[in-house]
């Protein structure tokens, strides 16, 4: 028979005391510190590198050595990024901004090994391994304000105490490591700042030129004689049967392509022009494209024809002066130096005449429908400038013997010119001639050009205007002859411009200029390495903190290694030792219905002196 159990009809639940409260969250705290130490910097680095590599432009290589220029980009030590450099640097600068706030979180992880050690040493009653009050102070200082001031106080404070006492009190290694972590984090932050600043200074806007090859057949910028002009002399009779540089008729002839030729004469053609290369003396006039292709952003190497005209004043050589003019009337001359050259000096306006000679002696004229010339050939010009200039020309005022002043204004001139025709290969880059190779053309080419000029005389008006311009800008008669010579070389090319055939270039490319950010690789990767070092450092601290967190009550100690823990111990001693879930709950401040304590600072003793924290408790 079992024991008697009274049946009262009342059920009850045995009392089970609730477990004491304690501070938790060590893993969430470690995770939070880890994420703050690594995630923002990782995201910024990923965004920065992602933008750079996504918008990176690789300069197009130029395979032709003749088209290489100073603006050709081939710097392998930089990245060219199609973004505003200011935008990129704003992203990069976030790294140094964030790095300056990381010390507190790094120290927060470093405190875990210290807390675990303090817990074990306190439990095992090993006071020699615990902290002195001074060491306790700088540990709290690091935990609450882990900046350069805290590191400074830690380093110099230890030194001053040793110098004053002569005794070096060794702090536990775990406590020293807190200071080292703070210092290392600040150093890493300084490296990030230095690399970021370096990157800021050297990242600049840059004009990047990208080139694209153009098929030769799509760039017909060269000029050559037509197939009708080969293997013959190209005299008037030859061209009567088969046109070369003009179309002969009983009145002289007409242009082969009048519209193109007149457009070139008047500088309105969009595809053909007479350009000048002044890199040699005398300058070369050559057939090319307007602005050497700059308006199309084309660089190219092409073949064409050029002409030079080396002119000099023949007034003295022909023995003429102002004294030969009588009452403003013209005078017939026969030049002793050039026997075949004769004419009327100062005839009726426009009084312009030209004569062709077979050689430099001027002893035989080029005449007849079967006449040929050599290369070079020679031309003599005589004429007068506009009388409307009066006596204002400098050539008149200086009485230059190379001209004869007219009685009613302007000057008379005699120019003897050597004309040379060349086959040319030239390179034009960004509208400028960078290479110009000229070799003398065959005599048949010179004959073809001379024959067209002799029969068409299409550029005489331009030559008369060139003489007027030359007399205006010249200091000497030779200056006037130089201006006249370059214009005559242009006139010859304009005259035959419509007859010459277009030819494909030897090579060509188009180019496009864009503004990019020029990002040097060295400072960029220095920044990445500095950020990466800080991230790796954060990972190491996290691993060490997780190992220390295996100590069961480590969060209780870590939480009390803080300013709030110290204040609680000092001002709420009765409540500070109670089990709580958070140290903030130690402070009552009247929340339980009572009157809160009051804290002040005052003298400890009016006679002896000293200061202390005074606490007024309403319960006492």
Q: Keyphrases for this structure?
A:
single chain; 620 residues; alpha+beta; 3 domains; eleven-stranded antiparallel β-sheet; 16 helices
Descriptive overview:
It is a single chain. Helix 1 (26-54) packs antiparallel against helix 13 and helix 8 packs antiparallel against helix 12. The chain is α+β, with helices and mostly antiparallel strands. Strands 1, 2, 4, 5, 6, 9, 10, 11, 12, 13 and 15 form an 11-stranded antiparallel β-sheet that branches. The chain has 16 helices and 17 strands. Keywords: Membrane, Transmembrane, Transmembrane helix.
Quick take:
39% of the residues lie in helices and 20% in strands. With 620 residues, the chain is α+β, with helices and mostly antiparallel strands. The two termini are 61 Å apart.
Portion of residues within helices: 25-40%
Structural class assignment: alpha+beta
Net shape: rod-shaped
- Separation of termini? 61 Å
Outline the biggest β-sheet: 11 strands, antiparallel
How many helices? 16
**How large is the share of residues in beta strands?**
15-25%
What's the number of structural domains? 3
- The overall pLDDT, averaged over residues, is 86
Q: Give the radius of gyration.
A: 49 Å
Low-confidence regions: none
The number of strands is: 17
Transmembrane segments: 30-53, 91-115, 135-156, 177-201, 524-549
Keywords: Membrane, Transmembrane, Transmembrane helix
